[in-house]
Amino acid sequence: MTLVVQFGAWAWAIEGRPDVVSEDTRRLARGPGVKIAVAAVSLAVAAAVWLAVWPCFYVGETGTVPGGGSSARRACATLIGVNGVWVVWLLLIPIAFTGLGLAAALVGRRRLLWLIGGLAVGFCVLAVFSIGIFYLPSAIALLLAAGFTGRSKHVERSTPKRAGRGPQPQPSDP
């Protein structure tokens, strides 16, 4: 199997069978919605890495009172240092949203991309006072990708739609 990587999109083709990937799929993979969805994934990964390793996510003052005296000292701690390793799973939720959004953009599922973008924005709203604000750019990028994803008006379907339900009348032979 050969993996052909284009800027901002992935297209799979089996060696010797270039007809496996349709032209519609190639057009969708090169579209702006997919590129914006890749940017959303990149923003979410960058936010997760930043939150995991930023040394002063929590800043506080510590004071000691030995024998009646007081001393104030500034203390910094990472997000993982304060909350534990389990918080990594929480940091991966927006990455999962954006990954699903990229998959939806690759196959041209616009409604699914809107739903996933809405869920990502909901996550940001719920977590706005802690980590949500850091993931807001990736959630907004998912909504932008949804706006740019979909079939072009100039792309014809590979299988024509039927006009109605049920069997179609056959033309009579004269």
Structural write-up:
- With 174 residues, the protein is of the alpha+beta class.
- It is 51% helix and 14% strand.
- It contains six helices and four strands; from the N terminus they run ββααββαααα.
- The chain has helices at 23-29, 32-53, 79-83, 87-106, 110-126, 132-148, and strands spanning 2-6, 9-13, 58-64, 71-77.
- The strands form two sheets. The protein has a two-stranded antiparallel sheet.
- A hairpin with a 2-residue loop joins strand 1 (2-6) and strand 2 (9-13).
- Helix 2 packs antiparallel against helix 4, helix 2 (32-53) runs antiparallel to helix 6 and helix 4 (87-106) packs parallel to helix 6 (132-148).
- The longest helix has 22 residues, at 32-53.
- It is rod-shaped, with a radius of gyration of 25 Å.
- The chain starts with a strand and ends in a 26-residue tail after the last helix.
Q: Secondary structure elements and their pairing?
A:
Layout: E1 2-6, E2 9-13, H1 23-29, H2 32-53, E3 58-64, E4 71-77, H3 79-83, H4 87-106, H5 110-126, H6 132-148
Antiparallel strand pairs: 1-2, 3-4
